[in-house]
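Deliverable D2.4 — example input (structure tokens):
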């Protein structure tokens, strides 16, 4: 009885959780923008360091926050009734928007590197990030073909659905890992002079480390919400639902 009472207390409704998660996501975007504006010199399109600053902002906004919002579309209770197509379009549209922002973020960092003679794709962060984007593009294309094209057979959708869900969570966690490693890499490269070394933990390091923790928390909460059984959309095509 005590165990059931504890479980009931932890089983909070999805709407307040979603509001908290949305606020956390907006906070992550605001903090990465403030970091680049206050400590990294702001934003520009001239190919210099201020062009690079678009990279972390667009990656956190698209690959983490907007992608997380797309992943949670089917957890909203109002999507459980009525036609599913509008919510499919919203899910796919949010994911496509996240992908567009991600590509723009990649374009910013490649332009910065090429303008300054910096080699591309040499760090673990860059390998992980590009691999995540490539996996994301395959995930979106496969999801579009399986769930949005009207001639896709039902057996294919049933077969691919658990794979789509698994890789959705996997891509989100890879995105979080890429962003956190990128923040860490940028701090190592930037905080090198005698009074601002990273190991001395200056104000910028504290701020950026906090940003990384919040991004990690956002990703963990999204994956937790996706795994919570009571928040999953009932499968109208399953045997249990038909019974």
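Example output (designed residues):
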């Amino acid at each position: 009885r005590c165990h059931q009472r504890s479980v009931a207390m932890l089983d909070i409704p999805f709407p307040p959780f979603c509001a908290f998660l949305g606020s956390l996501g907006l906070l992550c975007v605001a903090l990465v923008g403030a970091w680049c504006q206050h400590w990294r010199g702001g934003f520009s399109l001239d190919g210099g360091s201020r062009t690079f600053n678009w990279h972390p902002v667009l990656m956190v906004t698209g690959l983490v926050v907007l992608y997380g919002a797309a992943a949670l579309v089917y957890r909203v209770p109002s999507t459980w009734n009525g036609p599913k197509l509008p919510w499919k379009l919203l899910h796919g549209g949010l994911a496509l928007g996240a992908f567009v922002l991600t590509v723009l973020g990649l374009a910013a960092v490649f332009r910065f590197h090429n303008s300054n003679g910096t080699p591309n794709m040499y760090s673990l962060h860059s390998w992980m990030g590009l691999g995540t984007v490539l996996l994301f593009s395959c995930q979106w294309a496969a999801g579009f073909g399986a769930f949005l094209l009207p001639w896709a057979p039902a057996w294919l959708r049933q077969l691919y659905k658990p794979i789509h869900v698994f890789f959705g969570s996997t891509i989100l966690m890879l995105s979080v890992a890429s962003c956190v490693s990128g923040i860490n890499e940028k701090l190592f490269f930037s905080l090198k002079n005698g009074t601002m070394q990273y190991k001395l933990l200056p104000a910028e390091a504290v701020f950026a480390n906090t940003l990384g923790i919040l991004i990690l928390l956002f990703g963990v909460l999204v994956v937790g919400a996706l795994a919570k059984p009571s928040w999953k959309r009932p499968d109208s095509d399953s045997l249990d639902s038909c019974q």
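The chain has one domain: 17-229.
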